[in-house]
Amino acid sequence: MNQEIHTCDCFTHGFTVNGDGELGCVFLSAWSFGRAGQVLSWGDRLRWCWKILREGRPYDDDLVLEPEAAEKLAQALMGAAADASAKQKPVL
User: Fold this and answer.
1) What are phi and psi of 14, to 5 degrees?
2) Gap between the Cα atoms of 33 and 15, Å rounded
3) Model-level pTM greater than 0.90?
4) Where are the beta strands (DSSP E) in the chain?
């Protein structure tokens, strides 16, 4: 199980990736650090506190993928990274 939080370049978001062999699924969980630019109402603050006290972790959003879908996502990420890092050569 991978517990590393992969941080967004804006430093206010992150995600974790976990595989569950028993369920045969991959979980991609999105997280917000701090307020992430949002001001929480008192009701939201109390709800977050209750969730942390009850479950030991703040709210998160999960993307649940079958192994094949996780591999497709990995290929898409690698393709996007290659496109983003491709530098155009200057025309002489």
Assistant:
1) -165, 175
2) 10
3) no
4) 6-7, 13-20, 25-32, 61-65
Residue 88 inside a domain? The answer is no
In a domain, 80, yes or no: no
How far is it, in rounded angstroms, from Cα 86 to Cα 23?
38
| pLDDT tens per residue across span 32-73 | 776 666 777 898 889 888 888 987 776 667 788 899 999 999
Q: How many independent structural domains does the chain possess?
A: 1
From the list 36, 31, 34, 33, the residue with the least C-alpha distance to 3 is 31
Sign of CA dihedral 56, 58, 63, 68: negative
Domain containing 57 equals 6-73
Domain membership flag for residue 45: yes
In contact, 48 and 35? CB cutoff 8 Å: no
